[in-house]
Amino acid sequence: xxxxxxxxxxxxxxEGSGKSTHSRWLASRLRRAGYRVTLVNDPGxxxxxxxxxxxxxxxxxxxxxxxxxxxxxxxxxxxxQQRIVPVLTQGHVVICDRFHDATVVxxxxxxxxxxxxxxxxxxxxxGGVMPSLTVLLDVPTKIGFGRLRRAHDRMEQKAATFHRRVxxxxxxxxxxxxxxxxxVDASQPMGHVRRNMESAVLSAIKRSNSQGCxxx
Length: 216
Hints:
By secondary structure, this protein is α/β, with parallel strands linked by helices. The chain has helices spanning 19-32, 47-57, 65-88, 100-110, 115-125, 141-146, 160-176, 190-207, and strands spanning 7-12, 37-41, 93-97, 133-138, 181-185.
């Protein structure tokens, strides 16, 4: 496991949870508070990640859940090595839009790949670089999809039963790992969601202050 001075904060959630919008807001909020912040997407924040994002989300190539999982993990290895570890060692707060848990939930709980095996493989592949905090923006499947104007990518186009399994998977992980996860009800008004999210993130940063993540 990498020795790090910074904090890795991940945002997870089912479709329509507002995760990407909230992650950008959170990064901006922390920068205004004086923290050095790096915002990344998984996949998408490396050259390999951009290529994988197009393949995995924006084409109609037929892939098994196992093939999807292995490709996501491969892209995450590059993301950790190229974008996350270098800035963690400099004391940055890293905000990551999706991470390891997304693969466990989407391809494991949702797609039927063995969850325990997938969790072990994913953690080993990224050298044990796991979040200090994972904010789960939870929203019921019907409400989440009601927020989407249309199904933009392959994951969003999957059946409602798949997405209900995804949500149950996220909630299962949160129950199993209560010290890492905080659940925020993303069906509430935006201001309420952001206040709860900000409070949880600032608490996590304070707990990590002895290792870095200090304001400039």
